[in-house]
Write a structure and sequence with these properties.
It is a single chain. This protein has 632 residues and is an alpha/beta fold. The chain is 49% helix and 11% strand. The chain is built from 26 helices and 17 strands.
């Protein structure tokens, strides 16, 4: 065996874990067997926008997969009503148990029957995993009992089945039936989805993005591709005053101050008091929105002036305002402004904050940076998130890869260097991390967080954001937001293939998976673009979009047989689910059917396991040839 000194050093370290030839052989056999198991099921969701109730239910029902399995296994055993009740018990075990007790149905016979059905379902879902992985997924306090019950086998005298019956007898005698049902429900939900992808925009619009993040922090396996609304809150936590002002303005616009004040302990009282004094507006919320909007436009102007690389000089609108006549000229046309008085703007220096505005922003900056809960959530977003991700042959990102008018990768210059395609996404990811983690955080990094939120060439936005026009101009023709050419080329298969190659993906089974732009299902728009090469999964989780989309969100499911897209109808609420066993209605569309079933060996995890097998085989050879002594 020809082997380098560095390789011998590595194998010596490996030998500390696998100390004998028998241990090495056992692990090789184990890993080789895992390669031939079916790949785990992946779920992709995007643009949750704080809609906690709907997201919580879809996470609990595994986008309808659990109901499908229940219907498949128990079709001839349970009535539709019984199957629906069993599903609700799995989704909300603690709450549903209380309902059943109130109805007087929690008899010993009911417990035995229900536990057996849950065990049968868990057995079926666990069949595609190793016993070791299933054991690790079990709630710790019941792992031994669950392991025994899930692997019961019939024998000649049914001794093992009788043994398992005694386990259930004892559980019920000790009053542990409820807790065991809760443990089984947790295991079933965990086995139904192996890995979760959130393709951006957890924040804004809906009321409880903080609750969604609390739930995601408990998830066993996930990644997050940052959206423009996520990066805005991340920039606010970094201390960017422009991002902070935009976050506050959004919360006021969406009537969602509670996420700031109750969720993150950030008070808007100083802003509201200032606004009531400065603006002739009887509604304190509207006054505060006016005040923070003016502050935001000032801060944005400062950023654009500091960063000519952003090429956003046309957005320097405050200096175009005729304050005497309350008008602004845009593209040769004069527009009257809805707001006539701007008491805090100095026409000679329109982007300067007055002392009171600066005091408010300094105080808000301190509150955002010191919010313990916000920083917990933002740290989680950094640790589990990125600008893009290549996973099992698919390319995931929220918005766009900026293109030029001809559909080629757009060259963008920042700090004297040219970036495009993957190099630009990597640069954006690096700048975002420097803004939060670096001890040498610079104003340049903080400014870039704002640019990622709304820059016309930002990969998270990719459009000219017309916040000023929407706030102050009646003429809605000025509100139109030109988009990066990427969005025109989404339906071009050659362009999509080019983008996949740019990120090192050459397989015929590779896809681009996007969020960000709601699909107008009511108008006949399809989420499948470029002959299925690109899939847009923003189906309108946010209630504000559902009149436009006609549905209430998508979940893309990628299992060992292929890909299918679930379109969801609006959620009726947890109370309806508990009392009437109502579920979210979902339609399923098969979009990819694999020619052969995908195994673990075909995945990114499989590639890592193959590398481990190669290392172990080298160690085995080293043991056999005496290059490294065994530790018998």
């Amino acid at each position: 065996m020809s082997i380098t000194d560095d390789r011998v050093k590595f194998l010596r370290l490996l030998s500390e874990k696998y100390r004998t030839r028998q241990q090495v052989c056992t692990e090789i056999i184990n890993l080789q067997a895992i390669l031939n198991l079916p790949k785990g099921t992946e779920h992709f969701m995007s643009d949750l926008h704080g809609e906690y109730g709907a997201f919580y239910h879809i996470l609990n029902n595994s986008a309808g997969v659990i109901r499908e399995k229940v219907d498949m296994i128990f079709d001839d055993i349970l009535t539709p009503k019984e199957r629906s009740s069993l599903c609700t018990l799995i989704y909300y075990p603690e709450e549903k148990l209380e309902k059943i007790k109130d109805e007087g149905r929690c008899t010993e016979e009911w417990y035995r029957f229900t536990l057996q059905k849950l065990i049968d379902l868990a057995k079926m879902l666990s069949s595609k995993y190793t016993r070791s992985k299933v054991r690790k997924a079990m709630p710790f306090e019941y792992s031994y009992i669950l392991d025994e019950l899930l692997h019961a086998q019939q024998d000649e005298d049914n001794n093992q089945l009788l043994y398992h019956q005694k386990i259930i007898d004892t559980l019920l005698r000790l009053g542990e039936g409820d807790d065991f049902i809760i443990a089984l429900a947790s295991l079933i939900k965990r086995l139904a989805v192996d890995h979760l992808h959130i393709v951006g925009d957890i924040f804004d619009r809906g009321e409880r993005p903080d609750a969604i993040l609390n739930m995601l922090m408990e998830h066993h396996s996930l990644d997050i591709e940052w959206g423009n609304h996520d990066i805005l809150w991340m920039g606010a936590a970094c201390g960017s005053q422009a991002c902070i002002a935009a976050v506050v303005k959004n919360c006021l616009s969406y009537n969602n101050i509670s996420v700031l004040e109750q969720g993150y302990g950030i008070s808007l009282r100083p802003l509201v008091l200032f606004a009531e004094k400065m603006y002739d507006e009887p509604d304190p919320t509207k006054a505060a929105k006016k005040a923070i909007s003016i502050i935001l436009f000032k801060l944005e102007g400062q950023i654009i002036r500091r960063n000519p690389d952003y090429c956003m000089q046309e957005r320097l609108l405050l200096e175009q305002v005729d304050f005497d006549n309350a008008t602004i000229e845009i593209n040769g046309k004069v527009h009257p402004l809805k707001e006539k008085k701007f008491p805090t703007i100095n026409p000679m220096d329109p982007y300067a904050l007055d002392p009171a505005e600066r005091e408010i922003m300094d105080e808000l900056q301190q509150l955002f940076c010191e919010s313990e809960q916000l920083n917990r959530h933002v740290t989680f977003l950094y640790n589990h998130g990125s600008m893009y991700k290549c996973f099992n042959g698919n390319l995931l990102f929220h918005g766009c890869v900026p293109l030029d008018e001809d559909g080629n990768l757009k060259a963008l210059c920042f700090d004297g260097r040219i970036y495009q395609g993957k190099s630009y996404m990597d640069y954006a990811d690096s700048m975002a991390r420097k803004a939060y983690f670096s001890s040498h955080r610079t104003q340049e990094c903080l400014d870039f967080m704002w640019y990622l939120w709304c820059g016309s060439n930002s990969p998270l936005s990719g459009r000219v954001v017309k916040t000023f026009e929407r706030a102050f101009i009646e003429d809605e023709s000025t509100w139109q937001e030109p988009k990066n050419p990427y969005y025109r080329y989404q339906d071009s298969e050659p362009v999509c293939r080019m983008l996949l190659r740019e990120f090192g993906l050459y397989s015929e089974e590779s896809h681009i998976i996007n969020g960000h732009t709601p699909i107008h299902v009511k108008q006949g728009e399809s989420p499948l673009k470029a002959n299925g090469r690109l899939i847009v999964i923003d189906g309108g989780f946010c209630k504000a979009y559902q009149k436009t989309t006609g549905i209430a969100g998508y979940t893309l499911i990628f299992n060992s047989h292929g890909m299918r897209l679930k379109s969801h109808q609006p959620f009726q609420g947890m109370e309806a689910a508990l009392s009437e066993n109502l579920d979210i209605d979902s339609e399923s569309q098969q979009i990819v059917t694999l020619k052969k079933r995908a195994m673990v060996g075909d995945t990114d995890t499989g590639e890592k396991l193959k590398e481990q097998i190669a290392d172990l085989e080298d160690l085995l050879t080293a043991y056999r040839e005496g290059l490294i002594p065994t530790k018998d």
